[in-house]
Amino acid sequence: MEWVWALVLLAAVGSGRAERDCRVSSFRVKENFDKARFSGTWYAIAKKDPEGLFLQDNIIAEFSVDEKGHMSATAKGRVRLLSNWEVCADMVGTFTDTEDPAKFKMKYWGVASFLQKGNDDHWIIDTDYDTFALQYSCRLLNLDGTCADSYSFVFSRDPNGLTPEARKLVRQRQEELCLDRQYRRIEHNGYCQSKSGRNFL
């Protein structure tokens, strides 16, 4: 009889996965997103990588809002070049508002020319402003509306990570993005905070 219940459970899990909508247009974002509350320092603690050369770890982002309400950001992190040359590099981003306050167009570039640059969608999927934030970008859509090239960051106000409650919320939203188990942890060991023996670009 136990095997019958096992089959029922597997069928239920399979049905739930089949019903999950992975079209980018179906993804929920943070309601009534507040840029001012979001501003400040965020530590990237997990990342779903895109195609191309981006900051790899020790990523610290600083978001700010000017007097006209325009949001911008700077980020610093470690990059590995040519397999064995490690440098700390800076990136800059400016954000253009859309009709949805949690969806932006982000123009970004690296201070060093070898880093990626572009003008991507930048969505705030969820945040409580004080503990965690989940960001998502789709750079290329498939014909069926799913994403062919995406990246996503899990941010924390604390470089040591998230609370158990925040981790649970983030995992749930990652599943909604159809990105569960596609993130890697980002190390914070102070590599780019000490200039001693470091290469900076």
Topology:
Blueprint: H1 2-19, H2 35-38, E1 40-48, E2 57-65, E3 71-81, E4 85-97, E5 103-110, E6 118-127, E7 132-141, E8 147-156, H3 164-176, E9 184-185
Antiparallel strand pairs: 1-2, 1-8, 1-9, 2-3, 3-4, 4-5, 5-6, 6-7, 7-8
Rg, nearest Å? 19 Å
Question: What is the residue-averaged pLDDT?
Answer: 87
Total number of β-strand segments? Answer: 9
Q: Work out the helix count.
A: 3
C-alpha geometry = globular
Structural class comes to: alpha+beta
Percentage beta strand:
35-45%
* Unreliable spans: 1-17
Question: How is the biggest beta sheet arranged?
Answer: 8 strands, antiparallel, barrel
For the biggest β-sheet, the strand order reads: 1-2-3-4-5-6-7-8
Describe the model:
By secondary structure, this protein is an alpha+beta fold. It is 17% helix and 41% strand. The chain has an eight-stranded antiparallel β-barrel. The longest helix is centred in the first third of the chain and has 18 residues. The protein is globular. 26% of the residues are buried.
